[in-house]
Amino acid sequence: MSEHHHDPTTTTAALRTVEQAKEQRRVIAGTIVGTSIEWYDFFLYASAAGLVFSKLFFAPMGPQAALIISFLSVGLSFLFRPFGAFIAGHLGDRWGRKRILMITLVGMGAATTLIGILPTYATIGVLAPILLILLRVLQGISAGGEWGGAALMAVEHAPVDRRGIYGSAPQIGVPLGLLLSSGVLALMTVIAPGEAFMAWGWRIPFLLSVVLIGVGYWIRHGVEESPVFKQIAEVKNERKAPIGVLFKKHGVLVIFAALIFAGNNAAGYMTTGGFIQNYATDPEGPLGFDRGPVLLAVTGSAITWLIFTIVGGWLSDKVGRRTSYLVGWVVLFIGILTLFPLVNTGSLGLLFLGLVILTIGLGLTYGQQSATYTELFPASVRFSGVSISYAIGAILGGAFAPTIAQALLNATHSTQSIGVYLCGVVVLGFLANALLRDRTGIPLGHGNEEAQAVSPLVFAGRKDS
What we know:
By secondary structure, this protein is mostly helical. About 80% of the residues lie in helices and about 0% in strands. It contains 21 helices and no strands. It has helices at about 10-55, 65-95, 95-115, 120-125, 125-155, 165-170, 175-190, 195-200, 205, 210-220, 225-235, 240-270, 275-280, 290-320, 320-345, 350-365, 370-375, 380-400, 400-410, 415-435, 450. The longest helix has about 50 residues, at about 10-55.
């Protein structure tokens, strides 16, 4: 008889575990879909800037100036990302992670869709470029707020020993967004070749964002609020001015966290910022490759980037965030040293190999970032800390990396100078990492604020008992 007897507490615990696992899967799906859509929108604009916007929106300035203004409008959004991070961080620490994520998703998607229906200069004159730039600014503000919320939702929902792999979910949105945007644009050049692409073909990828928002909103709507924020809300202890507290108590930590991301971001923007594509396909340059095969090589390297981003997150759960990062920096350093020598051989196969080696290092210094950042900051200022560190790192790293690389190339007529610059930024990232104690597995709950508030900086000295 006894073997038929079920302990109701065991059954309840089992059901709770199943429900938790389902919720964690929903969170992962929500963060991957949300960040992929965000980066699809972000990179789509960057790809269209040179192909379309310079001709349809900025043409009266003359071809050279139009191209420069077009690319400047791409970089402009970076300057508004900290603004988005400040707003989202402040409100996210007061209102919760989920609500902010819904707002940033809709903001980014609405801006992208509106670009798809925007009349050109030929139709409404100077108003066209003004509206285009305003929509790009809205994209920048949304991007600044999106990542912090997605990272916290993924990591704060994760089991302690799997924060790295769960936290890699929002990270793979970057290579997925790059794959999606370049893939859809390439497809449209086939469906609407030549004049048709300039007339209407380029608009379709932007209008597709409406469908993507719908999917993202539906998935995110079903995700529960972060358990850490629920604790904060229960004790009604959300900070009234989380940003003020953040800079007063953890200002130096924000800079160190930003330098970690800058090291990865500057190298990453050699492809996501379009520098390699432009350098390799420039008809006046040393290589003069066709655009198609180079775009294909970049797309292929986005796949290795995606795979090694997941590996980076997984590895950080096994050996700790700090160790996995330090290994990653060494691999990235090697990737930068080999990149231009391989690209400059004039062989497409070796160009692809150079990009693959680079993206292995990029993945290994990116997958663990969500978990690392989440474990660095106390619960009550965490959204602000994570978002603002990320936005500052993006400005220091990626925002001007393609421009700096082009300026160095123009000044020295050699890619060696670009290698030296990128290696320098990677060394800064390595040192910033080496000066932070490992916080892998630290309790993230609101009840552990005291332990979380102890500075992880090696030179700060420990204040904990």
